Amino acid sequence: MVGGMLSAFAILLCVTALLAFLNERFLHFPTTVGVTLAGALASIVLIALDALGLPGLRGWASGVLSTLNFTEFVLNGILSVLLFAGSLGLNARQLLRQRGSILTLAFLSTLISTFLIGFAAYGVFALVGLNVSLMWSLLFGALISPTDPVAVLDLLKRAKVPVKIETLIAGESLFNDGVGVVIFLALASAAGIGGHAGDVSAGSVLGLFAREALGGLLFGALLGGLGYVMLRSIREHAVEVLITLALVIGGYVAAAALGISGPLAMVVAGLLISAWKEDVFTDSTREHVEGFWETIDQVLNIVLFAFIGLDVLLTETTGAQLLASALLIGVALAARWISVAIPFSLVRAREGYGAYTVRLLTWGGLRGGIAISLALGLPDSPYRTHVVTATYAVVLFTIAVQGLTIMPIVRRAVEASPDEG
Question: What residue intervals traverse the membrane (predicted)?
Fold first, then answer.
């Protein structure tokens, strides 16, 4: 008999294929946006049918999704593959030239946004009578601040923005993903919740942050170097694919065991192999390896966003939670703009970005599966459902509204920066 998790994944895969087909055949939205909206609509229909006295389907669908466990599926499943594939597809040399602006945004912007959203969320929750603690509000700020590299990279592929702006947005999203997870873990440790409880002194929190972030960067460099040594000595594309896959899966598991940031390690490893791919691959093997990672990236990308839409089934909401969520959508947007504009002012003139770049970074700051998986991974608490509901609201808004309306800002950014192509 087929195992429960395999059966659940098979159902998710079939539903995702159907949603993607319907979107491609009739809606013609960007695939990630289309499958997310279709999945959310399907969830709402099942909820409505259950409310009208047709029980069974919602409970069955919820059971399937619960079996998969969104947090495990993303953080300990497909995230390593998606981050490596995204960084492998970037122009690593161009990213190195823009390292100052990318790292400034990835670290400083994420920190600023975390505390802006956290303190504002504390006030918003209190305003509607939910009274979420300050530490849990800061955790919400940490998990919702990073832009999702999967969503952003899919958007950039369709938008055809200039290479300089594309590298800036994609590079920031890849690095701030890892940074955001590290900040989240540091705050969870300070709050003493879940499996992150421990010494809550300022020194221990800073030490955790340094170990996770710096350890992840160094371990990623080690993985990339190992990949370079192995790949340059062979010319069989199937073995090269196998080596890169082993580096990603094995490296991510090893990073978790070492207590360092797996996401940052995958980004660095992918960028190093991308920088050296002309040396380690022949033209034919490079085509096979890049084709494999591009295909697996696109397929898992679609599955992830279908899961996001369908997972609405598992979110119980109240009127106060919906009101808080609506207010926090505005808070997240404002915090994104402020947290980009302040650090960007340090690098914009020196590196020659156009006038619309801040607006593009703000409106193109989509959130996705990482935010939801961190929220769902929070331990049971009186505050948990408030944070999960707000997280879903912000994620769905960025995907559905920002994702569908980004093109006018892209066009203006291109017109304002004709020299950045």
Answer: 6-22, 34-53, 73-90, 102-128, 134-153, 174-193, 213-231, 243-276, 322-344, 356-378, 390-410
Exposed / middle / buried, residue 14 (Cβ in 10 Å: 0-12, 13-18, 19+): exposed
How far is it, in rounded angstroms, from Cα 357 to Cα 362?
8
The token pair at 256 is 């978790």
**pLDDT tens per residue across span 10-56:** 999 999 999 999 999 998 888 888 999 999 999 988 888 888 877 77
Closest CA to 173 of 263, 303, 276: 263
Q: How far is CA 292 from CA 49, 87, 287, 295, 303, in A?
A: 41, 14, 8, 5, 17
Q: What is the full DSSP assignment across 62-80?
A: HHHHHHH-HHHHIIIIIHH
pLDDT digits (tens, 9 = 90+) for 315-358: 778 999 999 999 999 999 999 999 999 988 888 767 777 778 88
Q: Give dist(CA 393, CA 224) in Å, integer.
A: 37
Q: Which residues neighbour 237 within 8 Å (Cβ) at sequence distance 6 or greater?
A: 284, 285, 288, 289
Task: Give the count of beta carbons closer than 10 Å to the beta carbon of residue 393.
Answer: 22
Cβ pair 397, 329 in contact under 8 A:
yes
Minimal CA–CA distance to 71: which of 379, 337, 313? 379
Q: Which residues contact 136 (CB under 8 A, 6 or more apart)?
A: 191, 381, 383, 387
Task: For tokens 């975390």, name the residue.
Answer: 114
Give the Cα separation of 205 and 199 in Å (integer). 8
The answer to whether the beta carbons of residues 50 and 231 sit under 8 Å apart is: no
- What's the DSSP call for residue 232? T
Q: Which two tokens stand for residue 418?
A: 């004709």
Tokens matching residue 268: 């660095």
| Prediction pTM value | 0.89
Asked whether 289 and 240 are in contact (CB, 8 A), the reply is yes
